[in-house]
Amino acid sequence: PYRTVAFVSAKKYKPGFSDPTISDAIPEMQAAGRGVGADAVIVRSHTAQDGRRIIVVECEAIKYTD
User: Fold this and answer.
1) Is the pLDDT of residue 59 over 90?
2) Are 57 and 46 in contact (CB under 8 A)?
3) What spatial distance separates the first Cα and last Cα of the chain, rounded to whole Å?
4) Is the pLDDT of residue 65 over 80?
5) What is the mean pLDDT of residues 9-24?
6) Average pLDDT over every residue of 29-40
7) Is the pTM of this model over 0.85?
8) 3 state SS for 10-36
9) Which residues contact 57 (CB under 8 A, 6 or more apart)?
10) Mean per-residue pLDDT for 13-18?
11) Is the confidence at residue 52, as pLDDT, over 80?
12) Is the dihedral of CA 21, 44, 39, 34 positive or negative?
C-alpha cells in the first residue's frame, strides 16, 4: 500500500543518433521524487518532442504506508 505524494515530470534531451528512452529519464525522475519525500516513482505517461530528440516523462511520486 502507498499514498501519492506528488506528480513529477522530467524532460530529457539526448544528442546523437539514438532516440531518448524512459530509462534515460529515470535518474531525473528519482531525484524529483526524493525532492518531494517519495519512496518511489511510477511512470504514468511519456511523450516524444522535437523530432523525437526529447522525451517528457510524467510520474506519480509515492510514499509506502507500511
Assistant:
1) yes
2) yes
3) 7
4) yes
5) 87
6) 95
7) no
8) EEEECCCCCCCCHHHHHHHHHHHHHHC
9) 9, 10, 12, 22, 25, 29, 43, 45, 46
10) 83
11) no
12) positive
Q: For residue 45, what are the β-bridge partners?
A: 58
Asked if residue 50 lies in contact with residue 17, where contact means CB atoms within 8 angstroms, the answer is no
Mean pLDDT for the stretch of residues 8-13? 91
Least Cα distance to 25 among 43, 45, 10 occurs for 10
- What is the number of other CB atoms lying within 10 angstroms of the CB of residue 42? 13
Rounded-to-integer distance, Cα 58 and Cα 43, Å: 6
Residue type, 21: T
Q: Judging by DSSP bridges, how do beta strands 54-64 and 2-13 pair with one another?
A: antiparallel
CA 38 to chain CA centroid, Å, is 13
19 Rama class: left (phi>0) / alpha (psi -120 to 50) / beta: beta
Three cell numbers, residue 23: 530509462
